Amino acid sequence: MSFELPALPYDKAALEPSIDAQTMEIHHDRHHNAYVTNLNKAISGNPALEAKSIDALIADLPSVPDAIRGAVRNNGGGHWNHSFFWTIMAPKSGGTPSGKLGEAITTTFGSFGDFQAKFENAGATRFGSGWAWLLVNNGKLEVVSTANQDNPLMGKAIAGCDGKPVIGVDVWEHAYYLKYQNKRPDYLKAWWNVVNWDQAAKNYEAALG
Predict the structure, then answer these.
(1) How many Å apart are CA 196 and CA 88, to the nearest integer?
(2) Backbone angles phi, psi at 82, to 5 degrees
(3) Do the Cβ atoms of 154 and 77 come closer than 8 Å?
(4) In the 8-state DSSP scheme, what is residue 2?
(5) Beta carbons of 136 and 207 less than 8 angstroms apart
(6) If DSSP codes are grouped into helix, strand and coil, which group holds residue 64?
């Protein structure tokens, strides 16, 4: 079986003005599609890898043959990260989380504003390309960042962190440069306007097990 590019759950212009339609088109149709294409190419002819889900594949990178491990890490990570990213954004969303997730954020970080500042800092200070994440690790919320297309499912030895993502923001330049140029902090502040906290709450519940 080959991995497939998932359709966006909303129109490419639906996140305007925070994220422009042209960026969404290039980001999804070209960048994400390239990760899927290159991942399928890398694992082609390896039935054991082709049979795995994307979660299982990136969570066990040491089992991937050395010759293709880098390609699977980069492109498999890119596929997982972007598939996740599209779902945690939605039109007419944003605001603040409520329920268990909202309470956990306040308990862990002091306030939602304090959490936002910590999360934005994780994204803004990630040198080069990468991601910032809110994740659950051993039942507790943490804010971390990863390089390139790494993510917490890959484990601490590879990605530098462990856990299950609740939300994550792409800070590769292709995610924001058309609209925000080199102003990554402005993009990160605008991104709160499109965060799908309903999906984030589901991710939180699932991460708690």
Answers:
(1) 5
(2) -75, -35
(3) yes
(4) -
(5) yes
(6) coil
User: Please, what's the b/e burial string for 108-135 (b: 16 or more CB within 10 A of its CB; e: otherwise)?
Assistant: ebeeeeebbebbbebbbebeeebbbbbb
* Bridge partners, residue 132, by sequence: 145, 169
**Run of H or E including 135:** strand 130-137
54 CB burial (10 A radius; 0-12, 13-18, 19+): middle
Q: How many Cβ atoms are within 10 Å of 169's Cβ, its own excluded?
A: 25
Sheet holding 130-137, edge to edge: 140-147, 130-137, 164-170
- pLDDT tens digits along 71-113: 999 999 999 999 999 999 999 999 999 999 999 999 999 999 9
Instruction: Give 119's contacts (C-beta < 8 A, 6+ positions apart).
Output: 132, 134, 143, 169, 188
What's the pTM value of the predicted model, to 2 decimals? Answer: 0.97
State the DSSP string of 153-205.
Answer: GG-HHHHS--SEEEEEEE-SGGGTHHHHTT-HHHHHHHHGGGB-HHHHHHHHH
Span 162-177, pLDDT tens digits: 999 999 999 999 999 9
What's the number of CA atoms in the CB half-sphere (13 Å) around residue 191? Answer: 25
Residue 62 tokens, joined: 């040491």
